[in-house]
Amino acid sequence: MPTSQVERFAASALAESAGLAETILRAVRSRFPQLRLVEDESGEPKALTGIRDAIEGFVPHLAPEEAAPRMPSGAFQEFGRGEGLGGRSLDVLQAVYRLGFRLAWRRFTEIGQRIGIAAPAMYELAETGFTYLEGLVEQSVRGYAGAVAGQEGERLRWRRKLIDGLLSGRHSDPATALAELSTRVAWEMPETVAVGLLIPPAREAVTPALGRGILLDMESEQPRVLVPAPEEAGRVDHIRRAAVGWSGAIGPAVPLADARASLRWAESAVRLIQDGFLPRGEVQRCTDHAEELILLPSSGLLDETALRLLTPLRGVGPARARRLAGTLLAWIETSGSATDIADRLGVHPQTARYRLRQIRELWGDDLDDADRRFEMLLVLRSPRLRGMIFEGDVPRTA
Length: 398
What we know:
Layout: H1 3-15, H2 17-31, H3 46-58, H4 75-85, H5 90-114, H6 119-167, H7 174-177, H8 179-184, E1 192-199, E2 215-217, E3 224-228, H9 235-242, E4 247-250, E5 254-255, H10 259-274, E6 283-285, H11 290-295, H12 299-309, H13 318-334, H14 338-345, H15 349-363, H16 370-385
Parallel strand pairs: 4-6
Antiparallel strand pairs: 1-3, 1-4, 1-5, 2-3
């Protein structure tokens, strides 16, 4: 295209830039009435200024001495940011840009025909225009992404504050005390809740994609999960499926004000997982491991109690002590006959009867005391939970 034609085209387009910007803005307002236009200090819509700047940034690029189009300084990035902050999609904004470009190019075509620019040269200008439009869209996408990321970061901070508040145990009515925080993160306070803890896998794993209403705090050393209405069918199973590859535990359902109690059970279960007493590789329900959670954390106390309750075994040899302890536990657990106990232990009924007579001689009337039998049950079950052989390890008695 001759330089003179380019210069005439650029001069005409720049002279009409203000009127063209107003035409485009009117069309946008008509086509997209839902758009909220922000005004500057003078009362002029910022969108009008942005459109005019876009035209005036593009047209000088057509002159031979220009190397690249001049993008408007931040206006289109600000448009994208506004859409992100408003929680809207970029689709509408991109449709606005396409409408604006179509109207602008219609006017530029009229100018080109008026000054006699050949069609092939106008096609080249169109290609340049499309490239310029892509740059404007890229600016808006950058602003949109920044706004969305900032909002998500803010939501994560408020969510963590809400979780901290719920687990502080300082509120008799957390639904009232933490109402503002729950509103900020769009979380409806439930009547009951269960609290879970996750153990990060040794290898990198995908963050569990939990359903709506479940609060997840991934910033803690042990990620925390708050499950509303955990008694609803499938709610806890959903978390276990979503956290494939993770280890952890979910505490029992409790009233919202007692969320800290559910956390304590989850903490206890996680310690047992880390110590190897509960399986890794999945999220455990505390309610499925009540015996372990009650007895194992108290193993030291139970060992001391065993020294007192199982004193009669000190007078016999180690092997005999283990056999008698196993028979005593089978008798307490089954309350059955010598035949039942023999079946359980895999011995002859006569052997079971012999051992039961020995047990009666060693403990006497203590066997008739329900409280004493319960204590014996606890101290004899504790070794089993710690992975010891059923009849092979009675705590520090032999």
